[in-house]
Amino acid sequence: MKISIEGVKSFIPNAEIETLLENQSHASESRIREIIAKSLDKQRLNPDETAALISVKDPELKQLILDGAHELKERIYGNRIVLFAPLYVGNECINDCVYCGFRISNQECHRSTLSKADLIAETQALVETGHKRLIMVYGEHPMYSPEFIADTVQTVYDTKYKKGEIRRVNINAAPLDIEGFRTVKSVGIGTYQIFQETYHDATYQKLHPRGPKSSFLWRLDGLDRAMQAGIDDLGIGALMGLYDWRFEVMGLLYHTIHLEQRFGVGPHTISFPRIEPAIGTEFAEKPPYQVSDEDFKLLVAILRLSVPYTGMILTAREPIAIRNEILRYGVSQIDAGSSIGVGDYAHKNEESKRKSQFVLGDTRSLDDVIYELAKGGYIPSFCTSCYRAGRTGEHFMEFAIPGFVKRFCTPNALLTFAEYLYDFSSDRTLKAGLELIETEIGKITDPNMQTSVKENLAKMKEGKRDLFY
Ligand code: SAM
Ligand code: SF4
Predict the structure, then answer these.
(1) Counting Cβ atoms within 10 Å, is residue 30 exposed (0-12), middle (13-18) or buried (19+)?
(2) What share of the chain is helix, strand, coil (3-state, %, to 5)?
(3) Nearest to 426, CA basis, from 365, 382, 362
(4) What are the CA-CA distances from residue 386 to residues 144, 235, 328, 396, 413 (Å)?
(5) Same structural domain for residues 65 and 192?
(6) For 109-113, which contacts have Cβ atoms below 8 Å and span 24 or more sequence positions?
(7) Is the CB of 213 inside a 6 Å radius of any atom of ligand 2?
(8) Of 24, 26, 29, 339, whose CB count within 10 A is highest?
(9) Are residues 22 and 165 in the same domain?
(10) Whose CA is nearest to atom 21 of ligand 1?
């Protein structure tokens, strides 16, 4: 791979961001209400508007923002939560990101890469718990070439096991060149996710001292190259704790606007992970800009309002109580039953911690998470139908097409949830889940759709699987 940043310019205007954050710090209540109303009217916010939300100090105005994000989620997306699991393929890495347990200088990291047989075993272990959607994660290393990534994705798709299979694979890996992205696209990936980590270039330089990742511009341009290779389903993200979260939220917004302006399509998802402790990694014990729980809640709500059309991902890095609370503010996807050690799903062992990138906050099983979601009134969804029916940009369609959620998303969530319940759930989850499905069917207003969902559920009870709209 040839790393070239010829002609690439940063679209992150540092001085403009600083000025906006300063100038917008006295927004009145009526202005904050106007901005929230604009978002509820399904319009993406402009930088000055997001800066105004970020600068709010008054607790009552903060509450308005949280309530606004909650209303937007309910109104546009409803009560579905899509579930996935991360699958770590290999932790060899030639970069030296100071916060990451996989960095090259970390002597305490036990390095390994899944063989084909290991990968099949990992996939089987995930399929056996009921998962249908994965994100495959790779360190950055010449071994993990585009061809290797494509091969591993293909192996996962080819692994049919007992009652299930993985139906959608997303990727979190280093940015590639255009040719590399084409190779990975050819095996039918879902989202390609690259986190910028920090949008503040001086901070970025300090924290990424070695390897290909040390180029801020190569990374910033990564998703542009993916678009040029024809991948239009992209995930952006910032690792919260490296620099001021206010700046990072603005950076995510400018990245969104850049993709919209250059390619006519914004990001499919936004991620906002907070740094977690990692073995042998002092930096991660006390990150310089640690984000408090209070600020974290607010930043999630502000992102929800700023880019109302995008999917929002909340990972198991966060502890259970925070996860449960933050679901309200616009989260659309969570991982569950996650293990982040290489080879951990099939063989949990003593070495596991030393093969992990960081420490997870939520270690509940998939079944426990699903039980609690159902009890909390959320519909757990394993839906992959947009991707498989060739409707790319599922989150955007939910947002942009009137009636899409009612016609596709909710019925598909119910069918995939029922599939989970019949094939994989514990007794208590089965009971809670069937009760939820009953309630949700009662809420379907179109009588034809209601009948159709009931018929499909009856077919599933008799053994039919993989039904979707
Ligand atoms: N190596 C690729 C890269 O750096 O883009 C992809 C995989 S990397 C393992 C995935 C993400 O994990 C990184 O983008 C970073 O945001 C996140 N990460 C790294 N160290 C972390 C830590 N200590 N706590 C939480 N997240 C971390
Ligand atoms: Fe390597 Fe990615 Fe970890 Fe950086 S974040 S050390 S590139 S695995």
Answers:
(1) exposed
(2) 50, 10, 40
(3) 365
(4) 29, 17, 24, 11, 12
(5) no
(6) 109/279, 109/280, 109/354, 109/355, 110/351, 110/354, 110/355, 111/355, 112/342, 112/343, 112/355, 113/89, 113/143, 113/144, 113/342
(7) yes
(8) 339
(9) no
(10) 100
Q: Is the pLDDT score of 299 beyond 60?
A: yes
The 3-class secondary structure across 242-271, one letter per residue, is CCCHHHHHHHHHHHHHHHHHHHCCCCCEEE
Residue 467 belongs to some domain of the structure: no
Tally of domains in the chain:
3
Q: Largest Cα–Cα distance of the chain, in whole Å?
A: 62
Does 104 lie in the same domain as 26?
A: no
Compute the distance between CA of residue 173 and CA of residue 223 in angstroms, rounded to an integer: 12
Helix or strand (DSSP H, E) at 433: helix 427-443
Residue 434 in any domain: the answer is yes
Q: What is the pTM of this model?
A: 0.96
The answer, yes or no, to whether residue 95 has pLDDT greater than 80, is yes
Distance 333 CA to ligand 2 centre (A): 23
Which atom of ligand 2 is nearest to 357's Cα? 3
* 416, two tokens: 């995939």
> Closest Cα to residue 137, out of 157, 162, 113?
113
* 23-40 residue pLDDT tens: 988 899 999 999 999 999
- pLDDT of 123 higher than 70: yes
Ligand 2 and 275: CB distance under 6 A: no
Confidence of residue 357 (pLDDT cuts 50, 70, 90): confident
The DSSP secondary structure of 117-151, one letter per residue, reads HHHHHHHHHHHHHT--EEEEEE---TTS-HHHHHH
Of the listed ligands, the closest to the CA of 99 is 1
Q: Are residues 365 and 234 in the same domain?
A: yes
Same domain, 52 and 101: no
| b/e 278-295 (16+ beta carbons within 10 angstroms → b) | bbebebbeebebebeeee
CA–CA separation, 62 vs 65, rounded Å?
5
Contact between residue 303 and residue 312 where contact means Cβ atoms under 8 Å apart: yes
- Coil vs helix vs strand at 312: strand
What token pair was written down for 364?
A: 């509940």
Residue type, 337: G
What's the pLDDT band for 81 if we cut at 50, 70, 90? very high
Tokens standing for residue 267:
């990001």
Q: Is residue 418 part of a domain?
A: yes
419 found inside a domain = yes
Residue ranges making up the domain that contains 20: 14-73
Q: Name the amino acid, one letter, at 442.
A: G
Q: How do residues 389-435 score in pLDDT, each as one tens digit?
A: 888 777 777 887 788 888 889 999 999 999 999 999 999 999 999 99
Residues 155 and 174 in one domain: yes
Residue that is last in its domain, among 27, 56, 73? 73
